[in-house]
Specification:
By secondary structure, the protein is mostly helical. The chain has helices at residues 8-26, 34-51, 61-87, 108-119, 144-159; strands at residues 96-101, 123-129, 132-137. 19% of the residues are buried.
Length: 171
């Protein structure tokens, strides 16, 4: 039996609290900013519930920590690789797109994977429809699919979804 998705009201409240924490940090706790901030927080939380309704897939704390560790490490490595390519006089890039079939379920897990790939230097998610994800890559001569499969595995782990790990990745 699958867990039921959270109610829209509970989801709105949880997202509003998270946005309030972000607002508190951005304004350094300035009380004069809360009037405008409360309106913005309510609108953004409501819009997020409309665009991204509650799902049965929830992030797991340990999986989220593992995912963030993976994301930060691979973002650094990818950033160094992009800088190396741009600083090399021969500019070793072959831009292009690849389309992959995803194993993740619809909703939050697929969106997190697409956005994760967009935030990593050298890749950009350009189209997500059903289980097909098209990724623009800086160099199509590189092995892109293993990297996407590793990111997919990390996202699955963050949500507590069981996927077979890609080759060379320990479960």
């Amino acid at each position: 039996m699958q867990p039921a998705p959270a109610s829209p009201i509970a989801t709105f409240a949880a997202r509003a609290v998270m946005l309030a924490v972000v607002w508190l940090m951005l304004t350094l706790g300035d009380p004069s900013a809360w009037g405008f901030g409360a309106v913005v927080i309510a609108l953004v939380a409501a819009l997020s519930v409309l665009l991204f309704p509650p799902s049965i897939h929830r992030l797991r704390p340990l999986g989220l920590v593992q995912f963030l560790t993976y994301f930060l490490g691979h973002s650094l490595i990818a950033g160094i690789d992009v800088a190396r390519r741009l600083l090399t006089p021969s500019l070793p890039i072959r831009p292009g797109e690849i389309t992959l079939s995803l194993r993740l379920p619809e909703g939050g897990p697929r969106w997190l994977l697409a956005n994760t790939l967009s935030l990593m230097p050298g890749t950009l998610s350009v189209h997500l429809e059903e289980n097909q994800l098209t990724v623009h890559c800086l160099d199509t001569s590189d092995a892109i699919e293993p990297g996407v499969r590793q990111a997919e595995f990390q996202v699955a782990r963050a949500f507590g979804i069981t996927l077979d790990p890609p080759e060379g990745v320990r479960a």
